[in-house]
Amino acid sequence: MTDAQETAADSSLRTTGGAPPADDGLAPEGLPIPLLEPRDGIPPVIADEESLAAVVAAFAAGTGPVAVDAERASGYRYGQRAYLVQLRREGAGTALVDPVACPDLSGLGEAIGDTEWVLHAATQDLPCLREIGMVPSRIFDTELAGRLAGFPRVGLGAMVESVLGYVLEKGHSAVDWSTRPLPEPWLRYAALDVELLVDLRDALEKELDRQGKLEWAREEFDAIASAPPAPPRKDPWRRTSGMHKVRRRRQMAVVRELWTARDKVAQRRDVSPGKVLSDGAIVEAALAVPPNVHALAALTGFGHRMGRRQLEQWQAAVDRAKALPDAELPQPGQTVSGPPPPRSWADRDPAAAARLSAARAAVSALAEQLNMPQENLITPDTVRRVCWEPPAQVDGESVASALAGHGARQWQISLVTPVLVTALG
Predict the structure, then answer these.
(1) Is-contact 144 217, C-beta < 8 A?
(2) Contact 224, 207 (CB under 8 A)
(3) ∠45-50-55 over CA atoms, to 5°?
(4) Digit-coded pLDDT (tens) for 252-311
(5) pTM score, two decimals?
(6) Position 11 pLDDT exceeds 50
(7) What is the dihedral of CA 138, 144, 150, 152, to 10 degrees?
(8) Which residues pair with 140 in a beta bridge?
(9) Buried b / exposed e across 230-267, counting CB within 10 Å, b at 16+?
(10) Which residues share a beta bridge with 119?
(11) Can you tell me the distance from the alpha carbon of 136 to that of 128, in angstroms, rounded to the nearest whole number?
């Protein structure tokens, strides 16, 4: 049993948090207890300015950290906007806010902006929260805390069960949260997602402190909270599933034109691009480069259910790609900065390949010793970059400087520098 698992098994970490106690007949002592209802019941959905103002006042007057979660409609709607925001704070209770009806939540964000926000997998929710005016100054990420503490399963349900002894409902995570009105079972699920988040945070803080990792976690949380918004992805069409089958530049142009046309339709209709035209259909059309609508309709993904007007729309995109001069065709592969794929290192630079092999083995051994995933100790990309272009003079100072230049945090630099100096030497 790992240190983290020992702490999870410690009954002192099993908190009722206002939920049913272990001896109420719901579950035998020591076994996980199903958490079926929020302790204060399902709150009404906040969907008007007057109700929102009351929530802002309540949460501003509350105490302690704020549990925050957001639900999106991935796979149903275009983009990653929030369709429900859940919050819970001591003294304020739980609030479910509809950001469609109340699209500007900057007042709520300001009311709790100076306190610590507790999120699970914060990097997933922070972008959509930022869009509606909610930007934290401090966070505690329970998923990342679980990774650093060495828990083998870090989903919210698994963490709540192993640390707090409760079983959360799992049935509504992938539903269409843009549905209005939201069904009561979904609202119950949403409220329960923040029900024990602060309790989980408190337990994980104790565990990280016990393992001597609390300051490491705080550095990671600060880095997430202060990170700027991600820049737009360059050439997003290149991420079309099945793109590896597309070899010729003219075929790549077909993918690009179809992807762009699909994206415009999806954005206009506010639906997931995959519901407009599948990636598989785009790749099929790129490989075939059909000469006309009749040939296009015979391809997988452009079946008989697709109307003539739609087929003409997609064929027009194919025709635009066919008409491009060679100079305007996309180049194979993306222009990337940094080292080439590691599989080519042995041929291109055997010494670099040897450095990478030694560095990977050393980092892996250290991560195992520290009981955390290797990628949380230091990103594989950082290791590759340092091994491909090591400092001219390999020593502790130069390697530490190189790691810092690639965005490593101080705790990572302190731990990883010695093993990389040895591997690069």
Answers:
(1) yes
(2) no
(3) 60
(4) 999 999 999 999 999 999 999 999 999 999 999 999 999 999 999 999 999 777 889 999
(5) 0.89
(6) no
(7) 150
(8) 118
(9) eeeeeeebbebebbeebeeeebbbbbbbbbebbbebbe
(10) 141
(11) 13
